[in-house]
């Protein structure tokens, strides 16, 4: 009896490992600081980025969060040489982070925002995952202006931050796994 139970347990674990390995991750984090070349866009330009890895596209629901911790602007001052300047503090806090849940399966739309910060910058940002689970960041309609009337902004770079997506399993799946584990424990006694 013990051998049969052990064989069943080994078969169950083996199947779970096989099923898990055939899909993409159940949770992924994409760090902007790790991206080469960096996420950089000029006035009138567009930025389109695709993640190197995917989330499992079959979940019925996804939890996501994103945070932008550093944005830099390449400035052309009236006097002096061009340089990179941290401009994160010029971006309102409500644009720098967010989270939520969205219905699956993929493709899913995580965030679509129009950012407009006076004469400094305006752009449309779209964060999403395609039908295969790969993440995308699209920045379009970019208008770069002037920083405090002292320097023209030539380009903007998203230097630090992240996007995390986690698949949320169906409650029935979790219940079945729990009942299966209880059944194995009860049978063992």
Describe this structure in words.
With 189 residues, the protein is an alpha+beta fold. The protein has one domain. Helix content is 23%, strand content 50%. It has 3 helices and 11 strands, in the order H-E-E-E-E-E-H-E-E-E-E-E-E-H. The protein has helices spanning 2-22, 93-96, 171-188, and strands spanning 27-31, 39-42, 47-54, 61-77, 83-86, 97-103, 108-117, 121-129, 134-144, 146-147, 151-168. Strand 4 (61-77) and strand 5 (83-86) form a beta hairpin. The radius of gyration is 23 Å and the shape is elongated. It starts with a helix and ends with a helix. Residues 5-23 have low confidence and may be disordered.
Any chance you could write out the topology, listing elements then pairs?
Elements: H1 2-22, E1 27-31, E2 39-42, E3 47-54, E4 61-77, E5 83-86, H2 93-96, E6 97-103, E7 108-117, E8 121-129, E9 134-144, E10 146-147, E11 151-168, H3 171-188
